[in-house]
Amino acid sequence: MIQRFRLRHLLVTLILLTSFTTAWPWPPSYKDIEGLLVRRADDSTTSSTSNTAKATAKASASAAETATPASKTAKETAKQTAKQTAKQTAKGTAKGTAVATSAAASSNTQAAASSISVNPVLPAGGVNMLTPSALAQTTYYKVGDYVSFAWNYTSLLVTPSKIDVYVSCSANSATYTISNNASFAPTGNVVWDTSPDATGTAPLLTETYTLVIYDAAEAATAVAGPGHLGVSNQLMFGMYIPQKYTPLADWTCAVCSAALSDTERQALKFMFGMCAITVLSFTWFVGGFGALL
């Protein structure tokens, strides 16, 4: 009885399953469901893909190793270029800073000089010559030698920033620059090269010359204010051109003469006249004294 029931139950289940499968809306062909099916992964395809990936990785590693020296070289070149650029920039900055500092110092000096209050009754600053000495007589120098001048300042309350020094000669109306825009120092000194190559187109003559010292910020003809450096042109000296040696036997004095000068003739006349008066007076005195006896 139980076996019949199980058999019936199995048949009913098969009939229902067959009816359900027949009634299901299947696609008309296999190609319509091909996209829904997953193909089996082939081992050969996977192996080929793996081999390709390995080859690609090796090529990338080789390319990276090849590119590494070039990359290092590029980095070193970039470092050297950066260092050189930094050095040049530092040098340029240092030069610019030095120029700016010098200009600022000059500007500050001029501003300080202009801000100094000086008593208007005080005299202008002057120059006291040390070489040659101001107390010495006229000094003569030979053309072609080096001539040294040294001086200090007197009554100077406003310090100039630059000094100009030159020599002038009135005989040929020429000026010879010795120092232009020289920095100020409490004791000034210059050396003048009097050789023809240094003096230029105006040759030095056997004449008297004047040394001129003044503030470079002012004109050589400007009148200095109280405490300011005035134009110094007090030192006069001589320059001479040396002559060739002449033996004494061949030398002739161009200004000498054997004749007596007017002064000498008058002196002789006075001397002989006094002698004659003396003799006559003594003779007259002696003659008169004898007559009395």
List the helices and strands and how they pair.
Elements: H1 2-23, H2 43-115, E1 126-131, E2 140-142, E3 146-154, E4 162-169, E5 174-183, E6 187-193, H3 196-199, E7 207-215, E8 236-240, H4 262-292
Parallel strand pairs: 2-8
Antiparallel strand pairs: 1-3, 3-6, 4-5, 4-7, 7-8
What oligomeric state do these chains adopt? Answer: single chain
- Could you tell me the number of beta strands? 8
Unreliable residue stretches: 41-46
**Pairing-aware structural class of the strands and helices?**
alpha+beta
Major sheet attributes: 5 strands, mixed
Helix content: 40-55%
Strand order of the largest sheet: 2-8-7-4-5
Shape: rod-shaped
Distance between the termini: 237 Å
Count of helix runs: 4
How much of the sequence lies in strands comes to: 15-25%
Note the run of SSEs as H and E. HHEEEEEEHEEH
What average pLDDT do the residues reach? Answer: 76
| CA-atom Rg in angstroms | 60 Å
Overview of the molecule:
The strands form 2 sheets. Strands 2-8-7-4-5 form a 5-stranded mixed β-sheet, with no helix packed on it. Strands 1-3-6 form a 3-stranded antiparallel β-sheet, with no helix packed on it. Helix content is 44%, strand content 19%. It is built from 4 helices and 8 strands, in the order ααββββββαββα. Residues 41-46 have low confidence and may be disordered. The chain has helices at 2-23, 43-115, 196-199, 262-292, and strands spanning 126-131, 140-142, 146-154, 162-169, 174-183, 187-193, 207-215, 236-240. By secondary structure, it is α+β, with helices and mostly antiparallel strands.
